Amino acid sequence: MPKKLNLAARYQNPKIRSHLASQFVLGTLSPKVKQKVIRLIKMDKELEQAVYQWQNRLEPINTSTEDVQPPKKVWAKLSRELDFSEQTKPSWWQSLFLWRGISALSLVLMLSLFIGQYNIEQTDSTPNLALQGPSYLAVLTSTKESNQVLPELIVSAYKSAEAGKSELHIQWNKNTDDKQDFILDNSQSLTLWAIDKNTGQQVSLGPLVSANKKQKLSVAQWQLIKNSKELWLTKGNSATDPVLFKGDCLQLSSWKNS
Amino acid sequence: MSFDAITSKTQDNSFKHEVERLLSQVCLHNQTAFEKLYQATSPKLYGLILKMIPDREIAADILQESFSKIWHQANSYRSDLGENWAWAWMSQITRNTALDHIRRTGRRPESPLEETDITAVTDDNLRASEQRDLNYCLNQLKQEPRQVIVLAYVHGFSHSELADKLSTPIGTLKSWIKRGLKELELCLKN
To answer: What is the DSSP letter of A120?
Structure first.
């Protein structure tokens, strides 16, 4: 058996895996073996899980360590190194209560229409996850910033049991007569945002690729949708760019489960 | 569980939850979230590095390097591994960065072992339940395995450094660590 195969097979042994994970977390592996473990973690989910378990087991030792405020220059050097630009805060109109009121009102109206009467366009390929029904749904209505009356955008998030396989569907309502020439695709530099339900912070979910197409959601993106109270769509990728659509994000999984 | 213990546990969970929330935004390259994550965690991580590298200037450089890695590697964030994972992952990246520096430069803290307060770790008054479980299980170990595990974890001592400091053959020391970790795992599982 080739040497490499022997090694790979060796790491499948639960005892060796646990030994490597524990010594990796303890910090007693030689630099060479440590680098090997770092590479293996990316390929072997069970090793990653074992490392996580050992991190959790030993991490409480750190709580006996006193906090020490680092010098201020560390952050200054770090932000220079990472080339951070000064981020501007959202403009005053973005936090206007009026918009939230209009949004909430339109949501109730649109949701009732959506459930009772409207047919939603099918995506270009039928999603398997759609059979389970969406976990989160937002009906985005156009704002004054869009300078035109547009139909509603339906954003639905479908949860997959597999990490990174969850999907986001963005679709026009069937009633697209009013759509005029408005195109929703990546040529428009449109960005979808989640508004955190606890902090109200506006966090990017990334660019909108296209309407009527499904997009994969990373675990982090899913977490942001899960924690959001509203979803916004902006023209541009900055938090201060005009908000064209917005709507409350509703959790549907409990309905489905019940 | 006493009121103080419950309060401490709640604070600990709240801290870890906040770290997880911020890290999920950092992996989308949110600079504001990264700055908040830095403000929330850098004093803990700097304290952790100083235990391994007492030189404050070098420790500050290690802290900067660690956060740079956290920014660049945040996309390996896995919320499905549990709420505690985000903080444990950040601690591990920081410890690994400090260990890499120590192994590369060969510089070691020169504090004698008797100054290392392992009772701070095995103190019965430790607060949260995870700490109390670990404390209980560490105290079930014989003194030698307990001492080497805590010294290796807190100060980043290698096998050979521990063997030198404890004047013990390296084979015996490796056996203490191996046996100690195995017993610790069994005890914590139970």
So the answer is: B
